[in-house]
Amino acid sequence: MDTVTLVTFIAASICAFMVGRTYELMSRDEVISSTIQYLCDNGFIRYVLDENNEIEILKLDEENTDG
Fold first, then answer.
1. In tens digits, what is the pLDDT along the chain, a chain of 67 residues?
2. What 3-state class would DSSP assign to 38?
3. How many Cβ atoms sit within 10 Å of the Cβ of residue 55?
4. Residue 47 DSSP symbol
5. CB atoms within 10 A of CB 45
6. How do the domains of the chain map onto residue ranges?
């Protein structure tokens, strides 16, 4: 096996690994996001929307001071 083939194989392996890892992380984030959204929509957790319209989960003993 010559050096060019070995370097090409290693580079292709690293690229394939990074593409797979990125895809897996995006998939995990989507699952987490949809789970939190489901819990909020069905009243299983307490939350408020912050100024950026992002969900902020409240602790059980916290009160909503925004009204």
1. 689 999 999 999 999 999 888 888 777 788 888 899 999 999 899 999 989 988 898 887 766 655 4
2. helix
3. 14
4. E
5. 13
6. 3-57
